[in-house]
TrEMBL record:
The keyword NAD does not apply. This is histidine kinase. The chain crosses the membrane at residues 12-34, 40-59, 71-87, 93-112, 119-138, 158-180. It is found in: Cell membrane. It comes from the Bacteria. Signal peptide: none annotated. It is an enzyme of class 2 (transferase). InterPro entries: 2C_sensor_his_kinase, HATPase_C_sf, HATPase_dom, His_kinase_dom, HisK_dim/P_dom, HisK_dim/P_sf, Sig_transdc_His_kin-like_C.
Length: 444
């Protein structure tokens, strides 16, 4: 896939060929059609320089190489200089086609960054001003010789008019660059917002699909699992009454335990996939959410917590169950990545915009290609049976519903840091509640 600069260069090549053809046609039309004698040889030599440079640039661009912005600027600067030569050979500032400077400036404002654009604008203003040196300013102070060579330049009003055109050109060029750059930046920002909105919509659709899949699996499997549970319980009672071997009884009990575990897994899948959709919002201190998330976690003693004092004083309106499970999933991943005996650092602080929870593991980190995909549904680097690759995806979904976000930072050999952020206070506004959520006070 070609980058933006390569695309800009391809269009610039086409525009330059159009300019070469157009300039040649205008010169010939003026010379032969209007009967205004032109200096054809130097004019067509200048056009030939533009054509030759375009041929060379086209051949160079066919190779697979990176197109840099300064190359585009150099090509546009060459075009400005060549236009100045053409104008100087055909009337200087009296030539009405001096307005074509604005075309180059507008094009630069679209394809180049602000610094390069302003540099080209300064070059164009300087080149336009240079036309006055030979055609207006020097002849006006050259006495009779100048009057004989340029008799029309003695018209003072015409001179003032042309100098005013130069000032107007500089002003128009400045306005074009400023507003085109502003519009371009605004469009780029809008495009970024649309990309993020589409990504959020895609994640929401995946989350909804997961919830539907989990609910459907739970519904379809509930009947056969219940039947197996009932049959296993009756079989256990029968074996107990008949005094069967202990090993056989243990096998039946194991069947019942695994059936119960399957039902728990299906229930948890439904809860996880649903995230905070429809869950009641309750007021909780952020520290309480962290404690709830860590409660009963295997190897809890390896988690080193650092909680800001304000985490126990302030209370926020959140879907407590989904939020605690989101934190728990991140900490659990950190424990697994750190390896046996290695600590996991957890820090919760209050910032100006809200809360920031940082979880740092002591693992080996992730390479760039894995980090780029972390958080995608069903993507996991864990061994089979240790995870489904939904933890980070569901955590991000919970945070985004609350107006927050999740950021992953990892360096191979230096561990991974997960940063969870969510706003403070804003969740108390009705507009911030997810659809179907309700407010519930603690203890109600």
């Amino acid at each position: 896939m070609r980058d933006a600069q390569a695309i800009n260069l391809s269009w610039l090549l086409r525009l330059r060929w159009g300019a070469v053809v157009g300039q040649a046609a205008i010169i010939l039309g003026v010379h032969f059609g209007l009967g205004m004698t032109q200096r054809l040889v130097p004019l067509f030599v200048t056009i030939a320089v533009a054509a030759a440079s375009n041929v060379a640039l086209g051949l160079w661009a066919r190779r697979e190489r990176r197109i840099r912005e300064r190359l585009l600027w150099a090509v546009m600067a060459l075009d400005v200089v060549l236009l100045t030569v053409l104008l100087d050979l055909s009337g200087g500032p009296f030539n009405p086609f001096s307005a074509l400077y604005l075309v180059h400036i507008a094009l630069a404002a679209v394809v180049l960054r602000a610094g390069w654009t302003w540099a080209l604008t300064g070059l164009a203003i300087g080149c336009f001003g240079a036309l006055f040196v030979d055609h207006l300013w020097f002849p006006s102070t050259g006495g009779e010789l100048a009057s004989a060579h340029h008799p029309q330049h003695h018209i003072h009003d015409v001179r003032m008019h042309l100098e005013g055109m130069w000032a107007a050109f500089a002003l128009a060029a400045g306005f074009i660059v400023y507003f085109v750059q502003r519009v371009t930046r605004a469009l780029a920002a809008r495009e970024a917002e649309l990309v993020e909105a589409r990504a959020a919509a895609a994640r929401h659709e995946k989350l909804t699909a997961l919830g539907t899949l989990a609910a459907g699996a739970a519904h379809e499997l509930s009947t056969p699992l219940s039947t197996i549970a009932v049959a296993a319980r009756e079989l256990e009672r029968q074996l107990t009454r008949t005094g069967s071997e202990a090993a056989t009884l243990e096998d039946v009990q194991l069947i019942r335990q695994q059936v119960a575990r399957c039902r728990d897994i299906l229930t948890q899948m439904t809860l996880d996939a649903g995230a905070s959709q429809g869950e009641s919002m309750v007021e909780r201190a952020p520290a309480a959410l962290v404690e709830e998330a860590l409660e009963g976690l295997p190897e809890r003693e390896r988690v080193r917590t650092e909680l800001d004092a304000r985490t126990r004083e302030e209370r926020e309106l959140v879907p407590a169950h989904a939020f605690a499970r989101a934190i728990r999933g991140v900490v659990k991943n950190a424990l697994q990545a750190s390896g046996p005996g290695k600590p996991v650092r957890l820090g919760l602080v209050r910032e100006a915009a809200g809360w920031r929870l940082t979880v740092e593991d002591s693992g080996e980190g992730m390479p760039a290609e894995v980090l780029a995909r972390a958080g995608e549904p069903f993507f996991t680097t864990k061994a089979p049976g240790e995870g489904m690759g939904l933890g980070l995806f569901l955590t991000r979904a919970v945070l985004e519903q609350l107006g927050g976000g999740l950021v992953l930072r990892s360096t191979p050999g230096q561990g991974t840091t997960v940063v969870l952020t969510w706003p403070a206070g804003g969740l108390r506004q009705s507009a911030a509640l997810p659809a179907g959520a309700s407010r519930v006070k603690p203890g109600t």
